[in-house]
């Protein structure tokens, strides 16, 4: 069987890391696309030259031409600009919206059957815009954020409980911004929900609240440390987890920015919700029951995302 083809739109920090991971995991042949001349070609060659030591079978090609992504099975979009210290993700909306238009049109013309994972910020609005510009089916266009936010939550929890990250599961829903909703009731250590662990005196409510806040600020914490850009190792790993679920029809239950039309009482919008990813893309949005306080937090996150989508419509008439 022919290898899968993975197109990476944007060959910056995340794009290069995605290419490296996709090759090492032998998910398929990789095409790195960028408007910057030389960058995708240089990164593709550099990663290909790691193949003899790493012993992977995958070809890597760098390009500035959309025609090279033709027939891609998966497109992962990181094209655009990251934030700098002092900025919010929402400050990137105007500049990255224009990028989504070019990328959406490029994917529609060359890889209309692909499963498309958007990473560019502000995530929930950009995945919505990318879907609109590309015209691809909603279940084939999804945003990466919940896997990353949940991974950060899991990491911080594993430090607090001094247990393996493997035994910590967590769910972060809502928009990928300050209003994201880390769900403590649905997060566990080896199946024991976090509120029970507080009752067992394994941690305190104050410590748990601080971890929830650190998770919400997880992106800004790294931006503040790096100063010249944002996180890229964990974001790339998160998107690869989603791509692998699609390519291998794993039916993973992962939190993603997915199209909700009826689920969670929403009428046609993208926001972070639990999904099942398999060979058809988003196979299902898992409509979990939220408690009153969780629903209120989710609602305010939904309102924040709606505001960004309205801002996109105000900038680009074709989206209105
Ligand atoms: N969703 C998430 O959880 C998450 C996590 C981390 C970063 N991000 C976002 O991902 C994006 C990329 O981050 P990065 O660190 O890789 O940035 P980066 O600056 O390292 O790379 C972005 C690349 O996009 C390219 N580019 C710009 N316009 C383009 C266009 N029209 N077509 C093709 N390529 C284009 C640039 O040349 C650059 O190489 C940012 O918007 C960042 O905020 C999102
Ligand atoms: O914080 C950012 O700007 C990048 C990304 O959204 C992240 O959460 O790391």
UniProtKB/TrEMBL annotation:
Keywords, A to Z, come to:
NAD, Oxidoreductase, Tricarboxylic acid cycle
What are the catalytic residues? 176 (proton acceptor)
- Show where the Lactate/malate dehydrogenase N-terminal domain sits: 5-143
EC number(s)? Answer: 1.1.1.37
The family database entries (InterPro entries) matched by this protein are listed as:
L-lactate/malate_DH, Lactate/malate_DH_C, Lactate/malate_DH_N, Lactate_DH/Glyco_Ohase_4_C, Malate_DH_type3, NAD(P)-bd_dom_sf
Q: Give the UniProt record's GO annotations in the biological process aspect.
A: lactate metabolic process; tricarboxylic acid cycle
Q: Does the keyword Oxidoreductase apply?
A: yes
Name of the protein this chain belongs to: Malate dehydrogenase
User: What species does this protein belong to?
Assistant: Palleronia aestuarii
Q: What is the lineage of its organism?
A: Bacteria, Pseudomonadati, Pseudomonadota, Alphaproteobacteria, Rhodobacterales
Q: Which gene encodes it?
A: mdh
